[in-house]
Structure formats: structure tokens, C-alpha cells
């Protein structure tokens, strides 16, 4: 009989290597996307204004999902 060695990678080893590769690729891709933080451009009046508007779209969402009126 032949004495053949099969190179197999265990499931856990495979997942470790794939996870390490994904972390490394993610770190290199995310680096140029990081931008410095900027201060808010809104003044106090703009920060306190009402933003929620119950439009037809919002009313339809509530109706379809059976939220109480």
C-alpha cells in the first residue's frame, strides 16, 4: 500500500485563519476611511427644535404594524 499523507486543516484551525485574515483585511480597509471629528454646527435653537413629523409614511407604518393610535 502507498503511504500518502493528506494535509487537512481542522475546522477550528480554518476558522481561526479566516478570522485573522478578515480582521487584517478590515483593518487595512478601514484605515483610510477614518476622518477627524468635527464639532456640531447646530446652534442651541436648532438642537431643540422638533424633528419628529408624523407623515403619511409613518402613519402607514404604524397601521401595518398594528401600533395603537
From TrEMBL:
Protein's name in the database: Twin-arginine translocation signal domain-containing protein
Q: Which domain of life is it from?
A: Bacteria
User: Which InterPro entries does the entry mention?
Assistant: Formate_DH_TAT-contain (IPR014177), TAT_signal (IPR006311), TAT_signal_bac_arc (IPR019546)
Amino acid at each position: 500500500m502507498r503511504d500518502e499523507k493528506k494535509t487537512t486543516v481542522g475546522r477550528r484551525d480554518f476558522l481561526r485563519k479566516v478570522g485573522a485574515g478578515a480582521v487584517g483585511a478590515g483593518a487595512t480597509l478601514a484605515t483610510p476611511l477614518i476622518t477627524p471629528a468635527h464639532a456640531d454646527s447646530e446652534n442651541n435653537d436648532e438642537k431643540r427644535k422638533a424633528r419628529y413629523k408624523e407623515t403619511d409614511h409613518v402613519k402607514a407604518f404604524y397601521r401595518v404594524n398594528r401600533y395603537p393610535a
